[in-house]
Amino acid sequence: MNGKITRAAVLLLGKPEATVQLHPVQPQISWVLYSKEKIEKDYQHFYPPYIIAVDEVFAKIRNLKYRYLKEGTLFPDEVDQYDQQNIKEALSNCIAHKDYNLGSRVSVAENEDGYISFTNPGSFLPGSIQEVIDSEEPPSFYRNTLLVTTMESFNMIDSIGSGIKRMFRVQRERFFPMPDYDFSGNKVKVTLTGKVLDMDYTRVLARNPRLSLNQIILLESTETEASFGGRNKAAEGKRSY
Questions:
Q1: Over the stretch 187-219, which tens digit does the pLDDT of each residue have?
Q2: What angle (nearest 5°) sits at the alpha carbon of residue 173, between those of residues 169 and 178?
Q3: Tell me, which fold does domain 7-235 have in CATH?
Q4: Which residues of the chain fall below pLDDT 70?
Q5: pTM, full prediction
Q6: How far apart are CA 44 and CA 198, in angstroms?
Q7: Cβ distance 158 to 149 under 8 Å?
Q8: CA 194, 197, 199 angle in degrees (round to 5)?
């Protein structure tokens, strides 16, 4: 652009050594695998070109099969713990909407107990998840406009702002908890749960297939800490709905 290589080009297509052009920003994605006891078991760092790094990070994530019995049948359903598109959507959103002026890395924290979190530095520009779910229009502005539009042209992210809604719908179809968002500390952190946490909640979803996302979020927010023991953010009132 104007005879110069853009930052978006370096991030998506540049070799790792080309990132010196982004100084003092040091683009990096860090994947860490934790045991059920939250002990680090493995890790790896990834660098541009991000158009390749997204698939490299995805390949590191253990996407095991999860089996559970639906009401009224003796035969278990078998699904991947995490929807593949949800993983790539969450990771690509971190790259597209990160505040690169803050200099922090994108973090992918995988827990063997059936959780995976994606964190990027910077505020959540729409303000709340509720606004995203209620909106029928794509976002009116982006933090990194050229980067976002380029990723859209590469089909790395959706072009109409529907990716987050899809993540919620997929979790609902699996009868898994909704994506959990935390906006504290000037960061955006989304946690995907790859298992059933509360059978009563799951039965309500199974028996009421026409529940709206807003109704499901309201239902989930009324669950007790005991029902969602692994999701302490909900218990601490940090859910940003």
A1: 999 999 999 888 888 888 888 888 988 889 888
A2: 55
A3: Heat Shock Protein 90 (3.30.565)
A4: 69-76, 159-161, 223-241
A5: 0.86
A6: 33
A7: no
A8: 125
